[in-house]
Amino acid sequence: MKLQDELPVDHKLLLVWRIGAGLGGIFLIVFGCLGLADHPGFLSTSGSDIAGMSTNGALSILSIVMGAVLVAGAVIGGNFASNLNMVVGVLFVLSGFYGLTVLGRPDANILNFRMSNVLFAFVFGLVITTFGMYGRVSSHLPHDNPYWRKRAEDEEPLPSGPKTFVKVMRPGPPNPIGH
Fold it and tell me: What span, in angstroms and rounded, lies between the C-alpha atoms of 21 and 15?
């Protein structure tokens, strides 16, 4: 049995995953289109700034493609959107590390990364990954969550009812008086 089969069609988490993918994808598409409208060179290292980040033709096209992938994930929805958000988020974090390694090296900086691009890649990657993990990864998932049920197939759910206090008795001789 696959975990995807257990997720109800109208589960409230589906909306969170779709919104995360859709908003992230739309932002990337707009950034890429604005970058291409400026007519930068494809691998130029002296492109203009769009929304505080540097860009060139290659980065603009890559942004449009990744944005389209995220929007497609939002349209498809379900676990696919969640998994896609996590994968794309990790790719953005990795691209942030790429940007760090090529800062100050114009021959290797083919995407025209500057520090603002690196910071955006880290933050955007973490946000998109968080959207993908929302409701799937936590120690406090509700017991009706299919991800909790999958992890706890052999465990019994905790009793639901009023909280009780239990006195723990220590075995052994009693404590000496005055200590």
Answer: 10
